[in-house]
Design a protein that fits this description.
The chain is an alpha/beta fold. Helix content is about 50%, strand content about 10%. The two termini are about 30 Å apart. It binds coproporphyrinogen III. The site of coproporphyrinogen III has 20 residues, from β3.
């Protein structure tokens, strides 16, 4: 059957007069209905592991705005949680995990095949969504890329410069590589299970790719992505993969070819004109409006939105932000962005 969902058509390489649109972190604290459901769930992790409520918050931005895609509500840190690194969130600060700094810490982690019991509620959320989503809306599954997830596991928290992960890489290369290897395997089995539950495409978030320089970028961003994508393609041919090597800069060039990704998601540090010439030349791109426009709105939002649509109009494009929408965003600005993309 010919593909009718606009997002899937873009991922298949089709140029469309109006690009499909969704938004990173589209289910989130800027929406009053999200805050109400989160309150009901108790805390963020209880929301992630409650299939009915996680499906509900995934659907909220679809109902409110009519996006072309829904992204499973979960978090990249559920994989370390499933591997046995105790995860909790400190309100107003962010995630905390037990740290991985020695062979002994690594030895306590579970195997990549042993994550499914813990992650079963996530797969159930995917099943509910694939039943309940409107037929024109595509369902996106996701995982964190090994490097980005490792930065949190090594430090036990988010870090501004990923210093502890870079230090472990320099001081105990074998341990660092073992952790990347375990995460690569776990990501393959996790994304496969999401696809089997009904995800139509999956996105690999490498939010801290920009801090990998030179050969490190090849070894710990490109190589794991290539391994993960090849394994997924072998098991699930035809399921497209979106890769997001955030802040990759000129390393965005050739990234799709090097990894086998069907679409490269762009952050807003690169101009859309540059990216159209150097990245979209190889296939579908996603992005890349600065999320600050969702706070400030107005003429600047309209102008930049039109500029991005225009710059990418010659090839396959999925309109999105360059990074997640922030809690201080105004829901009315999201509508203005959508109206501008769809209405010109
Ligand atoms: O995009 C979506 O709507 C789907 C759900 C989603 C969340 N996190 C929900 C979330 C996705 C795809 C993510 C990915 C994620 N999580 C990334 C990669 C993308 C990026 O932003 O770079 C990263 C690095 C994480 C780890 C993470 N989760 C951090 C550092 C934090 C705390 C910072 C913050 O924004 O509060 C989270 C929490 C988180 N994940 C929230 C949401 C909606 C906020 C939690 C809350 O409700 O309090």
């Amino acid at each position: 059957m010919a593909e009718t969902k606009a997002l899937m058509r873009a991922l298949a390489g089709e140029t469309q007069a109006v690009p499909p649109i969704w938004m990173m972190r589209q289910a989130g604290r800027y929406l009053p209905e999200y805050r109400a459901t989160r309150e009901k769930a108790g805390d963020f992790l209880s929301l992630c592991y409650n299939p009915e409520l996680a499906a509900e918050v995934t659907l909220q931005p679809i109902r409110r705005y009519g996006f072309d895609a829904a992204i499973l509500f979960a978090d990249i840190l559920l994989v370390p949680d499933a591997l046995g690194a105790d995860l909790w969130f400190v309100t107003g600060e962010g995630p905390r995990l037990s740290t991985i700094t020695s062979e002994a810490d690594f030895g306590k982690l579970k195997g990549a095949e042993d994550i499914h019991d813990h992650l079963a509620p996530v797969y159930e959320t995917v099943r509910i969504l694939s039943r309940e989503l409107p037929k024109e809306v595509a369902l996106i599954g996701f995982a964190g890329a090994p490097w980005t997830v490792a930065t949190y596991m090594i430090a036990g928290r988010g870090t501004p410069d990923q210093g502890p992960a870079h230090a472990l890489k320099a001081e105990d290369r074998a341990l660092f590589e073992a952790l990347i290897g375990r995460l690569t395997e776990a990501t393959i089995t996790y994304l496969s299970a999401q696809i089997e539950a009904g995800a139509e495409t999956v996105k690999l978030f490498d939010s801290w790719a920009g801090s990998l320089k030179g050969q490190d970028f090849e070894d710990f961003c490109v190589a794991p992505a290539k391994t993960i994508i090849a394994a997924l393609k072998a098991k699930h041919p035809g399921v497209p993969v979106i890769a997001f090597p955030r802040e990759a800069g000129e390393k965005y060039i050739g990234f799709a070819k090097a990894t086998g990704a069907d679409c490269v998601a762009l952050d807003n540090s690169v101009s859309p004109e540059w990216a159209a010439e150097h990245v979209q030349a190889d296939g579908c791109v996603q992005g890349n409006l600065a999320s600050s426009h969702m706070v400030t709105g107005g003429e600047d939002l309209v102008r930049e939105t039109r500029r991005i649509v225009e710059a990418f109009s010659g090839g396959p494009h999925i309109f999105n932000l360059g990074h997640g929408i922030t809690p201080d965003a105004d829901p009315a600005n999201v509508q203005l962005m959508i109206d501008t993309v769809r209405g010109g």
